[in-house]
Structure formats: structure tokens, C-alpha cells
From TrEMBL:
Residues 39-332 form the FAD dependent oxidoreductase domain. This is Glycine/D-amino acid oxidase-like deaminating enzyme. One of its GO terms (cellular component) is plasma membrane. Keywords: Oxidoreductase. PANTHER family: D-AMINO ACID DEHYDROGENASE, SARCOSINE DEHYDROGENASE-RELATED. It comes from the Bacteria. Coiled coil: none annotated.
Length: 349
């Protein structure tokens, strides 16, 4: 809360919903709850990885993906030991990991050769992947529109649901009513706002994050795989000839504003990691809101009404869990048995 160089910021103000959400969040902050909440996310992440790989193969969509693993970097022996314990729990449940020293870090990713002296080591997860989420979703939308007949209505404001008995008769928008056999509520952080108006307990709070996408001036100095500076809360991905950085969990309501100062600490860390690789003046800056549930597990499945479904609350793992969540929800709507164990994932009001 008080170290502005770190990636977690809370703007205390007159937001009673943040207080209510925070109390529910604190109840999840025990070792037992952490383990209970981690397992369904891990299961869904494995399923999602397989789902997006199958989907990209089927559709031919390219999205600058890299399947070389991810390095989780630690700056001190203490933080490396803590990371080893945390990731050890994931390893016990199926995630391959390797604890590596700085020399091995640089072997795995030569882009870290200059920075390895700043680190005690890293956790290497060889089966993790990275990719450009924006590129993937825009190309998937184009594929769905051209090949599958999907009609996207961009710039249309959802205003509410038209309820009749136990069903959603239509979605009310500023462009009129839209009716369907099934309705999916997947509105990111606004899901909670709409849900509460219709009797759904969706304690979703918006948590702002920042990202910068920068062309690499010297590709040999940039990373060859994805990674994260665990002590600085800065993540990075190599997307073709670009570097994408992301940082910060900022509790500031629905404020989406940003300015250069919001990226200063991120750039300082990135220059330390990859000196000479990029010119921050050429960065494309962005800020968005992550839809966080108190237990940080998404809510998926049928809600209060017989034809209303949810796929929301993914928090900072939206891209990680997206393909698997969509596939799971499609099976539920179609009445098929899901291919994944749904324990801990399905919505309960």
C-alpha cells in the first residue's frame, strides 16, 4: 500500500463496495483456502492450454505464441526459497518445474545474460506458453464472423435484462432488445454491476493493470521466452519482434485513466532486465480492469435464470483460462458432459 515502486496499490476512498469485497477477500487469505482455490484454477489452466492449442491448429490462427516455458525470477535467496515452496505445491499437482541458478537462467533465455547478476535464481516452468491475447481475439473474431456466421455488435451498450418468469426474455441495449435461447454474462468487471441488479451474487471488483507493447530495437538483447520479475511484480512476453510488459494491481474503482508516471517503475525494471533492447518512447501504453473475485477463481455455469450463464471473474488469469472456460461453458449450454472436472468452478448463488 505504501511502496509505490511495487505493483500493488490501494487507493483508499469512500468505496463501501471495496471494503465489503476486501473483507470477503481476507477470508480467503489462509493456507487452506489458498490451496483450495489454486487447484481448480490449475486444472482449468491445463485444460485451457490444451484447448487454445487445439483451437489454433483447427483455425490456423497465428498470435505470436511461444511454447518455450516461462521463468519466474527471484532477486534474493529468501524469495527464491518462497517461490520454490509455492511452485512446489503446483508441481505436486502436475505442473513440471525446475529451480535454476542465474547461469542456467541465462542458458534458457540468453536475453537475461546481462541481468543475471541481479537474481538469486528462478523457477522454470517448461510447459507454460505466451502469446498476444489481443491478436488472438481479433483474429478469432474475424474467423467466427467470416466462417461461422457470428454477428458482432460493437459499440452497443448493454442496459439490462428483460426477465419473464424464470427466463431472460431478452437483453436490453441502446440498440433495442436482443433475444436468444441462451444468454452469457461475460462483461468483465461490469458483470457484478449488472448481476446485482438481477439478484446475482457476483462480488467482482475491478483491479486496474497496465501494459506496454514496445518494438525491439535490438532483438538479440530482448527475451526469447516469457517471464516475470516476482519481486517487482513485472511480467514480460516476447511477441514476435515486440516486447510486452505488464504490471500493477491497482484498487481504484472503475477508473481506467493512465499516464506516463504509471509506467515508470515498469520501464526501470525492464531496462534492468534487457538493457539496450528497446526505446520506451516508442511504447504503446494501455490500462484495463481485471474482474477479480475474492477467491480469485472465475465463475462459470448457469446462474439464477434457466437460460442465463456466466463466464466471468477471471481476474489476472483471463488470458490463461479463456479458452478452457469457453469450451467448458459451451459444453454446459449444449447439454454435453464437460471434459474437465468442474469441482470448484461452477457458479453457486
Amino acid at each position: 500500500m505504501f511502496n509505490h515502486d511495487l505493483g500493488i496499490k490501494v487507493r483508499l476512498g469512500r468505496d463501501p463496495y471495496l471494503l465489503a469485497w476486501g473483507l470477503r477477500f481476507l477470508r480467503q487469505c489462509t493456507p487452506a483456502r489458498k490451496r483450495a482455490n489454486t487447484l481448480p484454477k490449475l486444472r482449468l489452466a491445463f485444460y485451457s492450454r490444451d484447448s487454445i492449442n487445439a483451437l489454433s491448429e483447427e483455425t490456423g490462427i497465428a498470435y505470436d505464441d511461444r511454447r518455450k516455458g516461462i521463468l519466474y525470477l527471484s532477486r534474493s535467496r529468501e524469495s527464491l526459497d518462497a517461490a520454490a515452496r509455492n511452485y512446489g505445491f503446483l508441481a505436486d499437482h502436475g505442473l513440471p518445474i525446475e529451480i535454476v541458478d542465474p547461469e542456467r537462467m541465462a542458458e534458457l533465455d540468453p536475453g537475461l545474460a546481462a541481468a543475471r547478476r541481479h537474481f538469486a535464481g528462478a523457477v522454470y516452468s517448461p510447459t507454460d506458453q505466451t502469446g498476444d491475447s489481443r491478436l488472438f481475439t481479433t483474429r478469432l473474431a474475424a474467423y467466427a464472423g467470416e466462417r461461422l456466421g457470428v454477428d458482432f455488435r460493437y459499440g452497443t451498450m448493454v442496459e439490462g435484462l428483460d426477465i419473464e418468469a424464470d427466463r431472460v426474455r431478452a437483453v436490453r441495449t441502446d440498440a433495442g432488445l436482443f433475444s436468444a435461447d441462451s444468454i452469457v454474462l461475460a462483461m468483465g468487471p461490469e458483470s457484478g454491476l449488472l448481476g446485482r441488479r438481477h439478484g446475482l451474487d457476483l462480488p467482482i471488483y475491478p483491479v486496474k493493470g497496465y501494459a506496454a507493447t514496445i518494438p525491439l530495437e535490438d532483438e538479440s538483447r530482448g527475451p526469447t521466452m516469457g517471464g516475470a520479475d516476482e519481486d517487482r511484480y513485472v511480467a514480460y512476453s516476447r511477441l514476435g519482434n515486440r516486447l510486452r510488459l505488464s504490471c500493477t494491481a491497482e484498487f481504484t474503482g472503475f477508473d481506467r485513466s493512465f499516464g506516463p508516471k504509471n509506467f515508470a517503475a515498469m520501464f526501470r525494471t525492464a531496462h534492468e532486465l534487457f538493457p539496450g533492447a528497446f526505446d520506451e518512447a516508442k511504447a504503446e501504453l494501455w490500462a484495463g480492469l481485471r474482474p477479480m473475485m475474492p477467491r480469485s477463481v472465475p465463475v462459470i455455469g448457469r446462474a439464477r435464470y434457466s437460460n442465463l450463464y456466466l463466464d466471468t471473474g477471471h481476474g489476472h488469469l483471463g488470458w490463461t483460462l479463456a479458452a478452457g472456460s469457453g469450451r467448458l461453458l459451451a459444453d454446459l449450454i449444449a447439454g454435453r458432459a464437460p471434459e474437465i472436472d468442474t469441482d470448484g468452478l461452477l457458479y453457486r448463488n
